């Protein structure tokens, strides 16, 4: 099973559209997980149409129309693993232990908000993944997203993808 993890797209404020490379990954993915801060409903509509399966949550920058269609926390079993998706997890310091307490029946937690890619394991085995942002890198060197492969109920491949530089406004 192939997953695409994205977050913090902030369209159309930070870019006019999702990068073509990300859209190509949507087409290849069995499941797309979006960890919030969509900002526009059009991106949700696009990913609902284009994805085989979409799991998403709202973020702190998402207004009433997105909050009416998306949960704060989403849960799903994918490839034999228990996933949870949430936008915010709080400060980086103590994140693993805090999330392990908050999501005790979860194998993989996907989160966003910081725009900083993150891959760690909490005590007890909870895997925490933040794909960064494909459209708003903030203080990071690159725009990013993650792809994940699941085989036999194991994450066999977690790849951080750095997008090529783009011109402002695209």
TrEMBL record:
<dbReference type="InterPro" id="IPR024654">
    <property type="entry name" value="Calcineurin-like_PHP_lpxH"/>
</dbReference>
<dbReference type="InterPro" id="IPR000979">
    <property type="entry name" value="Phosphodiesterase_MJ0936/Vps29"/>
</dbReference>
<dbReference type="Pfam" id="PF12850">
    <property type="entry name" value="Metallophos_2"/>
</dbReference>
<comment type="similarity">
    <text>Belongs to the metallophosphoesterase superfamily. YfcE family.</text>
</comment>
<feature type="domain" description="Calcineurin-like phosphoesterase">
    <location>
        <begin position="1"/>
        <end position="152"/>
    </location>
</feature>
<keyword id="KW-0479">Metal-binding</keyword>
<dbReference type="InterPro" id="IPR029052">
    <property type="entry name" value="Metallo-depent_PP-like"/>
</dbReference>
<protein>
    <recommendedName>
        <fullName>Phosphoesterase</fullName>
        <ecNumber>3.1.4.-</ecNumber>
    </recommendedName>
</protein>
């Amino acid at each position: 099973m192939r997953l695409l993890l994205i977050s913090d797209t902030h369209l159309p404020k930070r870019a006019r559209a999702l990068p073509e490379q990300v859209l190509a990954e949507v087409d290849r993915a069995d499941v797309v997980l979006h960890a919030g801060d969509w900002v526009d409903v059009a991106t949700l509509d696009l990913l609902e149409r284009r994805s085989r399966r979409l799991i998403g949550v709202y973020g702190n920058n998402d207004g009433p129309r997105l909050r009416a269609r998306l949960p704060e926390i989403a849960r799903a079993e994918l490839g034999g693993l228990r996933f949870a998706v949430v936008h915010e997890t709080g400060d980086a310091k103590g994140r693993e232990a805090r999330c392990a307490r908050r999501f005790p029946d979860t194998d993989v937690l996907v989160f966003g908000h910081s725009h900083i890619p993150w891959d760690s394991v909490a005590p007890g085995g909870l895997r925490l993944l933040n794909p960064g942002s494909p459209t708003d890198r903030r203080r990071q060197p690159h725009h990013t997203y993650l792809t994940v492969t699941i085989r036999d109920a194991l994450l066999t491949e977690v790849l951080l993808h750095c997008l090529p530089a783009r011109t402002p406004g695209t």
